[in-house]
Design brief:
mainly alpha
């Protein structure tokens, strides 16, 4: 049975690395789901054990914030704020700085993937109208969304998982992450400005003419205000109330679904069901592996060789490497069992999120931005992304490592 579990686990995580499996029309979600099915079918876990392995509070929290973000998107908030930003009478470098700050703030509350999905297409058109090359702004959007999402325990899926599993304080984590996130955003702006070297204007060989894709969603002030009000209530509850986070968020999502104007099918249609299935599938696959005792044995053997995976430095390095191999959510799921240090939650959240800027495949937010740009006629290949992503990642990871080292000395 152990060999069977290892084979299934290996195939699932190979699929996480490749984004699919040879000869099969599967993406990461399909692979995770089939892996869970295979674990149940081979009796590596029973149906009851599989159900118990799924961290339902994390899944509910993620679902609830998808509903809140759907409210903001259908209310036209993302389109409105992107157009308002693009119309500011400022220099391109200043515009980039404002964009990075706003995107980071939105991503800390409404999830980085959804912010990128909503803003990227509008941002391309807005840049075109100002005769600006959209590429530096799109890369700024992706990097800022990733870094900004690390500011809270609700900014991205892996942070939600870390916060729920390790029972981290919402306010304490935000205070801990504030400094590296702020410095990371400043470094992102500086890296892009330096790399662009003043070449902000649109050039024919760099970008072809954009093609219309989606109709602009007009701002609905009432729906937007309702979404912002609910989001504020959630944040205040997380900070000051003793209620379970998933219950607060789920209740808020229920309130938003009771609308006289926005049909529930439209709201639920914007929920990323595939991401939720990916989470549940990986929970089952990882639980089956844990039941074999092999992960605990690997940690013990590594410690005997001098590599203590539960210590901060090896954990930081493992988070960086695995996040770029299998993506940050699967990486965090693998590393959570060895997160024993008091600062390991903050370490995992910052390292796995910042590492996602290295390559296009490092985070879903990067892929969303690149795909949205391609549909508008803007090509961002891996080399063009890496010119910004690599220095941003190296500098932000270095700052994070120094900050964590300083905190551990205190």
């Amino acid at each position: 049975m152990t060999a069977t579990v290892l084979v299934i686990f290996g195939l699932v995580y190979l699929g996480m690395i490749l984004g699919g499996l040879p000869f099969l029309q599967l993406d990461r979600t399909g692979i995770a789901l089939l892996g869970a099915i295979a674990m149940i079918a081979t009796e590596a876990v029973t149906v009851e054990q599989a159900a118990r392995s799924i961290d339902l509070p994390t899944v509910l929290l993620l679902f609830a914030f998808m509903v809140v973000s759907a409210q903001m998107r259908l209310g036209g908030f993302y389109d409105w704020i992107t157009l308002r930003l693009s119309a500011l009478p400022v220099t391109p470098a200043t515009l980039l700085g404002v964009l990075i700050a706003v995107v980071a703030l939105l991503s800390a509350v409404f999830s980085n993937d959804i912010v990128c999905l909503a803003i990227a297409p509008v941002l391309v058109d807005a840049c075109m109208r100002r005769k600006l090359d959209p590429v530096p702004f799109l890369l700024g959007l992706a990097c800022a969304a990733n870094i900004g999402s690390a500011a809270t325990l609700i900014g991205n899926p892996q942070n939600m998982l870390i916060g729920q599993t390790l029972h981290l304080s919402f306010g304490a984590y935000a205070a801990e992450a504030a400094a590296p996130v702020f410095v990371g955003l400043v470094l992102t702006w500086a890296v892009i400005v330096i790399c662009i070297r003043g070449r902000w204007q649109l050039t024919g060989e760099a970008v072809s003419e954009a093609q219309p894709e989606l109709e602009m969603q007009a701002l609905n002030r009432w729906q937007t205000a309702k979404g912002l009000g609910i989001a504020l209530v959630i944040l205040l509850s997380f900070l000051f109330a003793p209620w379970p986070r998933e219950v607060v968020a789920l209740t808020a999502a229920g309130v938003l679904l009771m609308s006289r104007r926005l049909h529930s099918s439209r709201m639920l249609g914007l929920v990323d069901w595939e991401l939720l299935v990916l989470f549940m599938g990986l929970f089952v696959v990882n639980d089956a592996l844990q039941r074999t005792g092999l992960p605990a044995q690997l940690v013990s053997d590594s410690a005997a060789l001098g590599l203590h995976l539960d210590h901060p430095a090896p954990l930081f390095g493992a988070a960086f490497l695995l996040s770029n191999l299998v993506s940050n959510v699967p990486a965090v799921m693998l590393l959570l069992p060895v997160a024993h240090h008091p600062l390991s939650g903050t370490l995992l959240a910052l390292a796995s999120t910042f590492a996602g800027n290295l390559l296009i495949v490092g985070s879903i937010a990067n892929i969303i931005v690149v795909d949205a740009a391609a549909r508008r006629g803007v090509v961002i290949d891996w080399k063009r992304h890496a010119r910004i992503g690599v220095p941003v990642t190296i500098s932000t990871m270095a700052v994070t490592a120094l900050y964590l080292w300083w905190r551990m000395q205190g």
